[in-house]
Amino acid sequence: MKSVFAECLENEFHKVIAPNFFSSFNRVLIKDATRFIIPDKLAAHFRGSGSSNGKCKAGIGIQYEYDIKNGQTTALEVTDAARCDLTDAKETSTDVLPGDLIIRDLGYFYLSILAEFDRKEAFFLSRLNVKCNVFEDENGSPISFKEMHNYMIKTEIPLLEKSVSAGVKEKLPVRMVVQLVSDEVYEKRIRKIEKKNRESGYNTSDDYKARCRLNIFITNVDSKGLAKEDVYAAYKIRWQIELMFKHWKSTCKIHNFQPMKYERFVCQLYAKLILIVLNLQLIRNFQSYYFSKYKRLLSEDKCFKTLTKGFERLLRVIKQESSESIKELLKIAELFSKEHWKEKRIDRVNYLDIVNLFTCMSDN
């Protein structure tokens, strides 16, 4: 089952949604992990991530990396749940190539890794870790985000960009883009951190409170490659991975397993992953087709649900001769074209908006 799964990934054909999407970069890599608890009897094979009550003895972690520019899975690895994102970032940093743009969340943040990307002439876009200080220059004092927030409020500047030096030891030159957040977002962040600090016996510093009022990004992409006004939209692309995990769990039930012996469990796990990869192949190719034809994007969630319900149809596509397979594919295409589109949410930038933004920028 593992070898079949590896072959599915190796032979994956990919379709680009828009050929000029993020044209300044060779690849745009987004990565995240999902974890779930499995029966305790499998703890000898898959260690749990641990928890405060000590009940998570066995768990699975799946590291998934996707090149969203070229429509290709670049990594899909099953690990222990105990293997953290930072460990993965360190162990896979050599896979990055010149001209790549890497977008990940704070779990993968490590300044020396970002410095390595920079040395390899690759690019990164990341949130700034709260433990990372930034300086006006290599010899300057740390920037006060409390003062920066006060300045932005006083001057009514919602978005600010500075060239700074990140880190005490690394001294990595980066562009820092700072964005004011709404009071609603701020209150949500403060409630979360103060609850955590109370449980640990800590006080929340004024500087940290000021950081909670800001979205702070760092990147080594110059302003021509990524304008400060577009940094937040580019970073939001990372959410496509988290949405994908949601489909895997809610629709494909990848995390649902009954107690069973190790060999049977692994076979079922990789069978589910094979089905997911096959589904993604169909969905992404139809996404490319319909976007080029109608400039609309299919919803992965709706397509996943349709394919999962019609599993027999997918099997027929795989098993039958080419002429019959084409007929089945046309039936799937007809299903997808009926109310399977991504919906526009009020006051929220969605993936279609981002694709259009960075495609239009390339056209211009």
Unreliably modeled segments: none
Give the topology string: H per helix, E per strand. HEEEHEHEEHEEHHEHHHHHHH
- State the secondary-structure class: alpha+beta
Q: In angstroms, what is the radius of gyration? A: 22 Å
CA-to-CA gap between the ends?
A: 47 Å
Shape: globular
| Helical content class | 40-55%
Number of domains: 2
Largest sheet strand order: 3-2-1-4-5-9-8-7-6
Binned strand content: 15-25%
The average pLDDT score comes to 87
Main β-sheet: number of strands, strand sense, barrel status? 9 strands, mixed
Number of strands: 9
What's the number of helices?
Answer: 13
Structural description of this entry:
The protein has 364 residues and is an alpha+beta fold. It folds into 2 domains: 1-105 and 238-364, no CATH class; 126-221, no CATH class. 44% of the residues lie in helices and 18% in strands. The protein has 13 helices and 9 strands. The chain has helices at residues 2-10, 85-91, 111-119, 145-155, 183-200, 206-212, 231-236, 239-250, 262-294, 300-309, 311-319, 322-336, 351-363; strands spanning 27-37, 59-67, 72-80, 100-104, 123-127, 134-135, 159-166, 172-180, 214-219. Strands 3-2-1-4-5-9-8-7-6 form a 9-stranded mixed β-sheet, with helices on both faces. Strand 4 (100-104), helix 3 (111-119) and strand 5 form a beta-alpha-beta unit. Helix 1 (2-10) packs parallel to helix 9, helix 4 crosses helix 6 (206-212) and helix 9 crosses helix 10. The chain is globular, with a radius of gyration of 22 Å. The termini are far apart.
